[in-house]
């Protein structure tokens, strides 16, 4: 009888354990030890529990409990007010069980996404990367790497964990992301959280909610023409569903984007696609966060001018509010689609963010960007934004890579010279110019810079740049 009683008790407690563990409060993987939450914000925490389970979330920065009852779908969500940067803190989630997230910091959280140039790690080999590894002891910088996965529908969870930046972890994180984060951390003296969700060789379509693409007939038709490849997905939404959707609505300071190589075959479409991606992410997050991207470096793409046209599509995407772009024509490698100077890419992105997002007034963050043109007889005067503190031919030689055209849109090589903060362009065979283009070649490494040492962007003054040969 005693043995039977003990057996029954064991079965009961086993059932009890299984029952409550099955319905215990739980969190998605983006929440955990060492995470960074956005400072000075209203952040959202969410998870699962038994329907009608009362859940209490308490953050140690104010010790104010926030209560919620799990819905009939076994879901819950709370909002917490965060103070200025600091930590470490704990966040406790208590339902039938208790979860305690430790070593939580408050700071600036940035999402890093795109293709292989964003995915590229220091351990994979970058210029001057080896000496940086032993110096990467920054416990207030934290990394979260999203693994490669696809899904047919938006997912609610993903794998991964937050890790502290150290010489052991830094080599395996996005190099561009790390050098961006380090610059932000060292300038602002606050914690930085970096989430890397990138996949080499993927077109932008896979990073957009498929429903958003379906609403745009032009983008949808272009997406339908994409051919399957062996190294990753090409269908709309496949990476978004598994690698972006589970992060929403984790509060971000902004997003960094380094992508476009997989879309060079259709640059006209990209001029609509990139703004659509930005709008889609902002709508999904309900947050018009800054979106900063990298213009493609020079490279020997297959068809003439397709790289230049993609760069122009990126430049025109700056019409989308609260965006920014860095130009890297001077630090690329026209023989390698993966230029190894990732340090300067990260630093330029950081300077862009420090100036535009964090209000640092003393940083010149962009090279010259085409603003407008004015025909003056047989020549054209080109005006630029970011021409401060003046324009310069970097090698002190004649300006290169300018072309000019008349009404027939037949572009010819032009001579160009700096005139104050403008450039005068002309060619003897074009008597009545109507258009100018610059760096209109896949491998162009032009020498027009501002005096801060930043290169000018590719540009085309005409409307139909994607048809320009």
Automatic annotation (TrEMBL):
<feature type="signal peptide">
    <location>
        <begin position="1"/>
        <end position="24"/>
    </location>
</feature>
<keyword id="KW-0378">Hydrolase</keyword>
<dbReference type="GO" id="GO:0005975">
    <property type="term" value="P:carbohydrate metabolic process"/>
</dbReference>
<dbReference type="InterPro" id="IPR039329">
    <property type="entry name" value="SIAE"/>
</dbReference>
<keyword id="KW-0732">Signal</keyword>
<dbReference type="GO" id="GO:0001681">
    <property type="term" value="F:sialate O-acetylesterase activity"/>
</dbReference>
<protein>
    <submittedName>
        <fullName>Sialate O-acetylesterase</fullName>
    </submittedName>
</protein>
<feature type="domain" description="Sialate O-acetylesterase">
    <location>
        <begin position="108"/>
        <end position="352"/>
    </location>
</feature>
<dbReference type="Pfam" id="PF03629">
    <property type="entry name" value="SASA"/>
</dbReference>
<dbReference type="InterPro" id="IPR005181">
    <property type="entry name" value="SASA"/>
</dbReference>
<dbReference type="InterPro" id="IPR036514">
    <property type="entry name" value="SGNH_hydro_sf"/>
</dbReference>
């Amino acid at each position: 009888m005693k043995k039977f009683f003990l057996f029954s008790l064991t079965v009961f407690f086993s059932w009890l354990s299984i029952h409550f563990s099955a319905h215990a409060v739980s969190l998605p993987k983006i929440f955990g030890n060492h995470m960074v939450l956005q400072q000075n914000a209203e952040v959202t925490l969410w998870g699962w529990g038994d329907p009608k389970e009362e859940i209490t979330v308490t953050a140690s920065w104010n010790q104010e409990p926030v209560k919620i009852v799990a819905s009939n779908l076994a879901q819950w969500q709370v909002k917490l007010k965060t103070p200025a940067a600091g930590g470490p803190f704990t966040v406790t989630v208590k339902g039938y069980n208790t979860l305690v997230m430790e070593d939580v910091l408050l700071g600036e959280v940035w999402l890093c996404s795109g293709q292989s140039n964003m995915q590229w790690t220091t351990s994979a080999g970058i210029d001057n990367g080896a000496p940086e590894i032993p110096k990467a002891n920054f416990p207030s910088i934290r990394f979260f790497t999203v693994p490669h996965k696809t899904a047919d529908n938006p997912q609610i969870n993903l794998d991964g964990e937050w890790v502290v930046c150290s010489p052991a972890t830094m080599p395996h994180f996005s190099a561009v992301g790390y050098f961006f984060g380090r610059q932000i951390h060292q300038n602002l003296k606050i914690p930085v959280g970096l989430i890397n969700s990138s996949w080499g060789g993927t077109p932008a379509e896979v990073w957009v909610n498929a429903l958003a693409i379906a609403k745009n007939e032009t983008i949808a038709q272009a997406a339908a023409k994409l051919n399957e490849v062996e190294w990753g997905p090409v269908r709309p939404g496949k990476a978004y569903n598994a690698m972006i959707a589970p992060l929403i609505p984790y509060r971000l300071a902004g997003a960094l984007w380094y992508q476009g190589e997989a879309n060079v075959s259709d640059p006209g479409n990209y001029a609509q696609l990139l703004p659509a991606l930005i709008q889609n992410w902002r709508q999904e997050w309900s947050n018009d966060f800054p979106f900063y991207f990298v213009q493609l470096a020079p490279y020997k793409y297959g068809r003439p001018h397709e790289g230049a046209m993609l760069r122009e599509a990126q430049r025109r995407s700056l019409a989308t509010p609260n965006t920014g772009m860095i130009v890297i024509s001077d630090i690329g490698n026209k023989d390698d689609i993966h230029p190894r100077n990732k340090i300067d890419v990260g630093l330029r992105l950081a300077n862009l963010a420090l100036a535009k997002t964090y209000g640092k007034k003393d940083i010149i963050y962009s090279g010259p960007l085409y603003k407008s043109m004015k025909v003056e007889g047989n020549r054209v005067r080109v005006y630029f934004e970011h021409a401060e503190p003046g324009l310069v031919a970097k090698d002190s030689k004649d300006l290169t890579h300018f072309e000019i055209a008349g009404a027939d849109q037949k572009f010819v090589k032009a001579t160009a010279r700096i005139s104050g903060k403008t450039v005068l362009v002309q060619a003897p065979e074009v008597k009545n110019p109507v258009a100018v283009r610059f760096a209109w070649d896949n491998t162009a490494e032009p020498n027009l810079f501002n005096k801060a040492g930043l290169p000018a962007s590719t540009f085309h003054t005409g409307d139909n740049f994607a048809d320009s040969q």
